[in-house]
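Before a colleague's protein record goes any further, I have to sign it off. I want your independent view on whether this chain really folds as the tokens say. The record follows directly below this note.
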Amino acid sequence: MAAKRAAQRSKDSTRKGSQRQPAKPKKRRLQSKKPKRPKQPKRPRRPRRPHRPERPPRPRRKPPLENKPDSGSDDTPTTGGGAAPAGTCGLIPIDDSIEQEQVNWCWAACVDVVVRFRQSPVPQLQQCDVATRALGAGAHCCSMAPVHCVSSQGGASAGPCDVSRDNAQITSLFRSFAINAWEDARLTEATLRSELTLGKLVGVHISWGGASGHMLLIYGCKGATMFSVYDPCLGAESYTYSEIVNYGDGEGTWDLTWRDL
């Protein structure tokens, strides 16, 4: 009996060892938790700024202009030897103090002024030399005493050389001094300003009606509307384009032009 019990115990022990033991629960490590920060109240949103209109771009500052000497004034006559700066319609430096020396020598004074301006060095030229070239060597115009101009429409002749010249004769006289002048109709204001901007003098024939006339030179711009006019009898003055077209308070009319002077 004792042997049977011992055998039964060994069987029971064998069965118990073959059964799987349940896994032991893992020990969890206790971690100290940090206390949570209390939630702060949300800040109120700032109100949006009102829309501002865009500012226009600031204009760039121009560099200061250099002080340049004045090319001429109404009180001081200008002298020849150059043209106005390119691209500007300023005063062309002519000797506008020259007066015609005989009653009918407006053409001789204008040719004298143009030749002095165009030729360098300035030639030792007199109006009587210009008249002698126009009338011929036998005229002896330099023997005549100068006479003050009476009016732009002419007056009593002072001698055989005190004569007028027609348009073609004046053109030929310019060319005898190597000035390639040519005749044209009255210029528009825009064309006149363009010629002066190129540094070219403009010769003007004023018709008084009939066969009488007068010669002028336009030699610059003054502002946006005025032009500088050399009248060999009355002196240098400033006129508008309309006043030149109807010269002499409307008594004369600009009817012909000498260009490329």
